[in-house]
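Weekly modeling sync, notes
Attendees: S.R. (lead), two postdocs, one rotation student

Agenda item 3: backlog of single-chain predictions. S.R. asked that every request posted to the team notebook include the full sequence so nobody has to chase files. The rotation student volunteered to paste the first one in as an example of the format we agreed on. Action items at the bottom.

Example entry:
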Amino acid sequence: MPEKEPSPSAKKPTNDQPDTPSGQQHTKGSKLFSKVGAARRFLSLRYWNERRQKVSWIERCQNRLVYVGMGFLVLYGAVTLKALMATVLAPMAPLPGQIASTLPEIPKPDPQALMSGGFELPNIRRATVTDRNGQALAISLPVVQVYANPMEIISPEEAVAKLHHVLPDIDQKDLIKRLKKKKQFVYLAHNLSPTQELAINNLGIPGIYFETGERRHYPLGRIAAQIMGGVDLDNHGIAGVERYFDKRLSSDRTPLRLSIDARVQAAVRDELDEAKRKFQAIGACAILMDIHSGEVIAMVSLPDFDANDFGHAPSDARFNRAVTGMYEPGSTFKLQTAAMALQLGVAHPWDRFSTTPIHVGRFKISDLKSDHFAPWLPLTSVMAFSSNPASAHIALDVGATRQQEWLKNMGFFDRVPIELPEAGRPIVPSRKNWGLTTIMTVGFGHGIAESPLAIVRGTAATGNGGYLVTPTLVAHNHDNDDVVMSDTQVPHLLSEKTSDTLRRILRLVVAKGIGKRAESPGYFVGGKTGTAEKISDRGTYLKHVNITAFTGMFPMNAPRYALYVMLDAPHPTAETHGWTTAGWIAAPLFSNIVTRTAPMLGLFPPDPSRNAQVEASLEIPLIPPIPPGVRALGPGNDPGAPPPSLLRTHHAVRSSHGH
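Predicted structure, as returned to the notebook:
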């Protein structure tokens, strides 16, 4: 069967099966297009793959940066926290040599002086010194010394210029010179304040270092300056109690409690300074002492100085007149003449002695021209009115040997024991020259020189029952002030009877005698005036230039304290009517001090209704009656009258006026 022809549609060429030349070209273009598309797809796929890789890498870098940032944040946070801890929350102590610690612990208030039992400042080696109530008299404060290692200083000129802004007092040229030396240690300044220390530290100068130290400070300045003394740059005592107790203060940090009462010391100084200025005296001193314990409550010497400036104080201000100065005691020594005569039994209150001037060659021993005494006075009146010739007669009755023995036993031949290195030795005539003239002049306080402390010590012995106490600047630790002496503690030189008689006589001097201006109402004071012509540097007496003094005790009905006051070369005033004697100048000063300080010492006047009773207990007549059957010394019975041979010799005895 014949084949059928294909239909037209079957014969139509298709794109896939070209059968003509143009169809073949079309097929080739399609293949090319297909290859380009594939290439494009490949490139697109590669692009996106690379992009994805790049994005992934960036993301990873970003993550790493975040992690690194967080790490740095943690690190800086730790550093910040550490700095905050080190500077604010819990600061570390400075390293040695970097900056010294200068802030001591703040002391707590101590109104009852409990600190004196064991209060200590940190980093302090030298002990505090306090008064008897715990008031600090000397205390060491922590300070800083600045030094340099010149080998580490880059530019001495620049370093000194910076230091000068903080320490304007430094010698720049000298410091530059020292910093250029080939040394490893040079002190730049001492005793820096904390402010100066911090300012220097902030300068940041290489080679500058600090070391801790201490500086002695005296809070009360002039109060008790001569007693305290001072220390050197190495904190070693060089004067006063600082020197005497140097080893103790350096080895035992327990405060040293002195017997001084700072309140009383200040009051005594005020009164003494006022009198010194009023009478234009060149010097003055006063001593207040417990007659039972020997504790010195106050000791003042003028002129004085600020103890914080010891190194620049003039020698006259450092001179302690109370223990170093030696003065003729004048009529204050008549108390010892009366004491030895009464105790030895060679004289009695009713015995009478001649007041007639004693002529020794061209010299004479007499009283003031204004004195109009009876030719003969009993011992009580001799003391009350202070007659020189009569005192000389009493001394002659005692005799040279017993006079010397008495004065030696009373300590007048030796340095008074006291905790002050400056205490001097008395000026005493040699025994081989202790003739009749010396007996008489010493009898009324001339021809011998003693320290004021020796006089007040002797005064205390006449009022405390006859015990020679040892003066001390160290406070006693007794439970009360009513200390009873015994023979085993101190020398007992006077009987209670003699001591009682002397207390009455001293009260008589103030109540009815030459010492009336020493009276202090309600305190029943007793004492003895003393005026002596001053001795020049050449050893001659200066006319009308006196040492005026008063020594006494209070209250005389039950003595507790002895007080001595002295003015050196006072000038007269209208109030004294031209006189420079003790009755006009020293006695009122004594009264002022007693009146002001007695209440501080716990003493108060009794009820006025008891005054008459107290006075009666102290009564002794100016002219005591002679007991029946007793032949009293007096006209025709004067064993101590100077022999005629003495009156014809020419001894160096001047006209003496010792009131």
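Discussion: group reviewed the output briefly. The longest helix spans residues 21-89.
Action items: rotation student to repeat for the remaining queue; S.R. to check formatting next week.
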